[in-house]
Amino acid sequence: MRLDKYLSACGFGTRSEVKRLIRSGAVCVGGCDKISAETKLNEESAEVYVDGVRAVYRRFVYLMLNKPSGYLSAVWDREKPVVTDLVPPEYAHFDVFPAGRLDIDTVGLMILTNDGGLAHRILSPKNHVPKTYIARVDGTVDDAEVNAFRFGMDLGDFTTKPAELDVISVSDGVSECRVTISEGKFHQIKRMFEKVGRRVIFLRRIAMNGLVLDESLREGELRELTDRELELLTNGK
Ligand code: URA
Q1: Do domains 3-54 and 62-125+211-235 have the same CATH topology?
Q2: Contact predicate 217/66, CB 8 Å
Q3: pTM (predicted TM-score)
Q4: Which of 101, 177, 203, 208 to mutate to test the pocket of ligand 1 (most atoms within 8 A of CB)?
Q5: pLDDT at residue 28 tops 90
Q6: pLDDT, tens digit, 9 for 90 and up, residues 41-79
Q7: What residues contact 145, with CB distance under 8 A and at least 6 apart?
Q8: What top-level class would CATH report for the domain 62-125+211-235?
Q9: Catalytic residue among 103, 105, 138, 214
Q10: Domain range list for the chain
Q11: CATH architecture assignment, domain 130-208
Q12: Tens digit of pLDDT for each residue in 110-168?
């Protein structure tokens, strides 16, 4: 790996920022007398120091995004903005992708990572990772609907696993509900409400496994997960 890419991956800034750092003479590579941005090194064994402090290389990054409406859960699209457009340049070299999908009009918690293993673990239907949403639907949700969610419903192409539906409030003909599902089928929550005769007006994911969306992130903002949050996402506790 090139030295500039390596330093970026260690968190020393964008490629142009680390190039400046290298030119300034702050960077030392064990075993090399002359270095430049193009100096090649082995990321597993390299000894790189910046102002005398050892640079710690990391391969994976885990970002919590508060997804805004209007963005596709993809890394590229011919026409529409995609969630990776929101990744700041200092993370560009990690080549993150969304771990799972939210509909274009769904907002809230989305994980962007370059760790395919983690993405597989949290998305695999075998692992039944719970995902919690706030849904606003038209009308007044009643107990029969809560039970329909609880017992699972036949959506034609599949029968849903038991889901939790709690009504938080009802006002001006709109029910605000908390819904937890342990699957992630296409449009699943919208289809479940449709099955009981309701239309979803707004949908926001607030938790995955034990990881809860940081309410201080505004829509479109992201930050790295802490070690504890990564644990909550992978193990649920
Ligand atoms: N269920 C939906 O209907 N849409 C989403 O984006 C997520 C879950």
Answers
A1: no
A2: yes
A3: 0.88
A4: 203
A5: yes
A6: 998 889 999 999 999 888 899 999 999 999 999 999 999
A7: 165, 196, 198
A8: alpha beta
A9: 103
A10: 3-54, 62-125+211-235, 130-208
A11: 2-Layer Sandwich (3.30)
A12: 999 999 999 999 999 899 999 999 999 999 999 999 999 999 999 999 999 999 999 99
